[in-house]
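@channel sequence for tomorrow's demo:
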Amino acid sequence: MDDQWFWARLESEASRWLEHSADDCDRRFWIDGFIPETITDTKRGVDVAGTVWIGEGPRTLQPYRFVVCIPQKMLHRSSRPFCVGQLSLDRERQSLQIEVSSGEQDAP
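structure tokens (generated this afternoon):
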């Protein structure tokens, strides 16, 4: 949870994902910081939950709840490459769900 490199890279990768998957050309979402708060072991790895700041357009910034699913094989490697495998943004519930995967892969 304290890996600053991971959270900075995830912020960049998730913002890129949101930019490339925007359904509405007038809305541009971006991420300005993850604040991890809890970690839960799962069969696949861990789920890290907390608060993330999500921007909509150039000036609006809102706190959302997030869960990031990290696979077991990524847990004990430093500076490991990864990409966003899945991302789901729910504006109504102000929540963000991300699944990361190892390796490189393009956003949608």
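heads up for whoever presents: The chain has one domain: 4-102.
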